[in-house]
Amino acid sequence: DQLAALTPVLLALTAATPFMRGWICDDDVRWGQISQSVDDRTIAERRPATSSHGSLSGDDQLAGSGTRPLAKSRYDGIDCYIGARTDTATFNDTPLAMDQEHFERLVHAGVDSMLACHVAHLFARDPLVIFADRIEIDDRHDVDHWENLQSTNWQTLRWKPPPPQKGELSKSNDSHIGWRVEFRSMEVQVTDFENAAFISFVVLLARAILDQHLDLRIPMSKLEYNMSIAGRQSAYVSEKFWFRQSLDFMDASQAKCELLTCQEILKGKGSFEGLIPLCKQCIHDSCCDHTTRQKLERYMDFISERAAGNLPTDAKWMRDFVMSHPTYEHDGRVTQAAAYDLLAAAEAMGNGSVACRELLGSFASLEADVKQTTPTNGQKNGYPSLLTRIMGPDKKHGGHLDRAPVSLSI
Description:
410 residues; two-stranded antiparallel sheet; 9 strands
């Protein structure tokens, strides 16, 4: 719940998809195109929830007979908060499609109503893939049927229960898997430095939320708006996103939001401190050695510079590269020569043979430092070790989170 408000903001800051099938796109991210590509809703399911499906016939083989209104594709932003706080329902201010039978069964079994809504919501859709040898299984011991639905609802965040056998193991066991949250909205970046920076930011902020008991929730309707604008061209500097004025826990009716730029969300505005100072305080309070602390602070400085518009997103850099290429004919097409030169430049930047100052500015020299810590064979001198130093030793937060509280899918 607490990471949800960040998903559109970081989608805008990591925008890296300005082209599609040889054409220059009118947006900067992949989200809308993928959402459309897996949108399997029937005509009746696409209708507004307030209208009747009229003469549209259903199909009893489909979830909800194929006529239950579904507001959006199965690849989209989250549809509800799932926390057990008393004000969660107030923040869930948009209609939620769910299977009523599954909801009642979950509540009857003792699952709290908010979490039951989320699970029943997943059952409002059909699975996309069925494996012939995994149809008749014992659901009391095997979670394949659950994962089939869970893994084909692609949302900006994913709540992941542990596999039963590995979740029951002691935390000291290397095979133990705890409860996880996947942060899924960000786009993969051209350089290791950028990827490391944004991964570190999410992990640091997750630690700050847990340690300082912060509340980042905004009404679901405002989160939907933020997702609708996050993919626009240069949204990271040209758009404003709804965000909390205060991160203190308070009743939903008192939680005020305002429209802020990415820079204001990260660096602060007025009495709102901003997220980067919170991350830097987390770095300062951690047990990191001086070298790690210095590197993490540089990552935060880089993200601040991008949010301020002083550094481009990958999408803007790639778009400018193609549109200024001598073979570009101002017709929206990416020429073969421009595509080749762009890929050659990206490869050189990615492997560190060229300092990518147009993209990273003064941070370009740090790309080599990141490559020295990139793991190639699971050794402890890479990202896992770095994240361990951020998160500290294994510990529980609120009785349900252990080890790193968030995983990244970019």
